[in-house]
Specification:
Helix 3 packs across helix 4 and helix 5 packs parallel to helix 6. This protein has two domains: 222 residues, P-loop containing nucleotide triphosphate hydrolases (Rossmann fold), CATH 3.40.50.300; 69 residues, YebC, transcriptional regulation domain (Alpha-Beta Plaits, 2-Layer Sandwich). The longest helix has 16 residues. The chain is of the alpha/beta class. The strands form three sheets. The chain has a six-stranded mixed beta sheet with strand order 6-7-8-3-9-10, with helices on both faces. The chain has a four-stranded antiparallel beta sheet with strand order 2-1-4-5, covered by helices on one side. The chain has a four-stranded antiparallel beta sheet with strand order 12-13-11-14, with helices on one face. The chain is elongated, with a radius of gyration of 23 Å. The structure holds adenosine-5'-diphosphate and magnesium ion. The site of magnesium ion has 5 residues, from helix 1. The site of adenosine-5'-diphosphate (ADP) has 12 residues, from strand 2 and helix 1.
Amino acid sequence: MLGHRPPKDANSSPTDEVIRTIDLTKIYSGEVKAVDNLNLSVKAGEIFGLLGPNGAGKTTTAGMLTTRVVPTSGTAMVGGIEVWKHPAKAKAMIGVVPQTNTLDRSLTVWENLYYHGRFFGMTSKTSRAEADRLLKQFRLSERQRAPIFALSGGMAQRLMVARAVMHRPSVLFLDEPTAGLDPQSRIALWEILGELHQGGQTILLTTHYMEEADQLCSRLAIIDHGRMLALGTPSELKASTGIDSAVMVSTDGDLDVLSAKLKANIQGATDARVIEGKVLLEVKGTHGVLPAVIQLADASGITVTDLSVSEPTLETVFIRLTGKDLRE
Ligand SMILES: Nc1ncnc2c1ncn2[C@@H]1O[C@H](COP(=O)(O)OP(=O)(O)O)[C@@H](O)[C@H]1O
Ligand SMILES: [Mg+2]
């Protein structure tokens, strides 16, 4: 959906690698291995996604790249700078949109941008002009004098993104940017992130929404238990399953019996497994698969209560890698 234009970013390192982690590891309180020897490389101009369920280690990874979480071992680099050796330099190169609303509630919408610019060393004149420009770009001009509490969740999130890019960071970090937003606000934010990407902005985002990763990301890493399970473009990852269709079958009958019967009898079936109360049947070729499933279930005295067929999605990829689904 989104083009892959060459980046305009003049701050990127000579290798064009904006983010690099080497064996990056975080163990909390000596016990929880939140991030486990992670090796990432993000190039200038990419929207790179960390896709994984709750607790996968996404926020911790972003935290170690943005000076918020101290690594236990390994290296986190941004723009060629080791984040934990030069935190002040690193901070100037990054923009961060955390999971919680960190806007200043004592200031107006416009003032939140203006003072951020001043804090990053902009002159009063430049900061004014930039605040005006960004509010326009992020469709917030009409709300410039509004207090923060008067903003909807979607508007507040857009303002957080505007503030995070105001000092022209080499890389923008977004932690679950659309979690809790209504579908319309989610799409509005996707549009804005797409525009930033078109302008050459390098972005790292975390998400547990596979649609978001699929729509937005140039490349993504699927992570679980702090480990990278797969890496590639959304198309590469989906193609890696080698299947044409994923059929989800719900029944109030015996799932294991149904799964075995489908795998053995459906033409083109390559695998079937029970996942969270449903049978996932993988098929090569799609012709006539739905009626065949229903007939087979009928003949076995099993009632099918719901049935869907789709091309493999990132969810399918995740299920195949972990045996569980991404949804909470
Ligand atoms: N401050 C902390 N202290 C102890 N454990 C933590 C802390 N923050 C996160 N964790 C644990 O580390 C793991 C990864 O968490 P997190 O990075 O927040 O994952 P995600 O953002 O993917 O949901 C989880 O098991 C979580 O409970
Ligand atoms: Mg998180």
